[in-house]
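I'd like us to work through together how a protein chain folds, taking it slowly. We need material for that, and I hope you will provide a protein of your own picking. Go ahead whenever you are ready, and we will take it from there:
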Amino acid sequence: MAKSAKKKTAKKSVKKAGKTTAKKKTTKKATKKKASKKAKKDPKGGLTAAGRKAFAEKDGSHLKPGVTKTMSEMTPAEMRRKGSWAVRFYGRAKLPPLVDSEGRPTRHALSAHAWGEPVPKTVTAARRIAAKGERLLARYRKTKDRA
């Protein structure tokens, strides 16, 4: 009788061990998927290198990271890129929301950080970035005319 009791308990522990391992496997997969999705977006704004790569694989585009250099260090091509971005994002007649209902900056506002600009929380701050973009484009045109 003692042998049969041992067998029953051994079977139960095997079943329990089998269930716990199955749960661990599904949990790991779920975490990997969440981690890979989050890793594509930089929490400070913009896309990570992995995000740019995934976007390129999906759409065939060639995204570059934002220009974070100071104005004096930029090449004419970088001036054009950053100026175009600033005017396109923050020079619109009607801007998308810059902060959410809880006062946190939106992804649109956070994109400024990826380009080395302060994150705008007001429309005035966003217009300042757009004005800087206009100055960069003017400087680019000036250097282009000289050449």
Q: What stands out?
A: The chain has five helices and no strands. The chain has a mean pLDDT of 84.
